[in-house]
Design goal:
- This protein is of the alpha/beta class.
- Helix content is 49%, strand content 14%.
- Strand 2, helix 4 and strand 3 form a beta-alpha-beta unit.
- The structure holds S-adenosylmethionine.
């Protein structure tokens, strides 16, 4: 089995990837994951890394970088990863239907930046749940 991190270093895939972060690498070593979801595939090296510890990985990007297919083939994780190209427009359309007020009222928000982060976090969660439900036909 090829070491994904060593492969990333050898093929200059660390730049712009979470795989360069030791915390990211160690996080996945601690657990067995059923489904992992990634927003922002890029060249797919972090998807390949996660695929070692997950039964399946769903990954989304607005640009279909072709390099990832060879990388996933080399690392023998092609069958575990499902990739989808999404449009920014589709994401904003989902935003329109989301009611955040009730959730946000329950949470004490200390400053503006924290509020923005919280909103982004909630939106991401809701969108991911919607996408996953569609993908898994739930
Ligand atoms: C830093 S790279 C991701 C690196 C990858 N997750 C890794 O760790 O190897 C960021 C990626 O996010 C994608 N991206 C930017 N905006 C996006 C959006 N709204 N939805 C999905 N992907 C997006 C970009 O096209 C780019 O490929």
């Amino acid at each position: 089995m090829i070491d994904v991190y060593e492969y990333a270093k050898k093929n200059n895939l660390i730049d712009r990837s979470a795989i360069g972060d030791k915390k990211f690498r160690d996080f996945f070593k601690k657990m067995k994951i059923n489904v992992a979801v990634e927003i922002g595939t890029y060249k797919g090296i972090s998807s390949a890394y996660m695929a070692q510890f997950a039964n399946s990985v769903y990954t989304f990007d607005i640009i279909d970088y072709f390099e990832k297919y060879k990388i996933w083939g080399d690392l023998e994780v092609l069958d575990k990863i499902s990739y989808y190209t999404i449009s920014k427009r589709a994401i904003s359309k989902n935003f329109e239907n989301i009611e955040l007020d009730k959730k946000l009222k329950k949470i004490r928000i200390k400053n503006k930046l924290e509020k923005i982060n919280l909103i982004l976090h909630l939106l991401t969660e809701i969108i991911l749940m919607k996408m996953l439900k569609q993908i898994l036909n739930l």
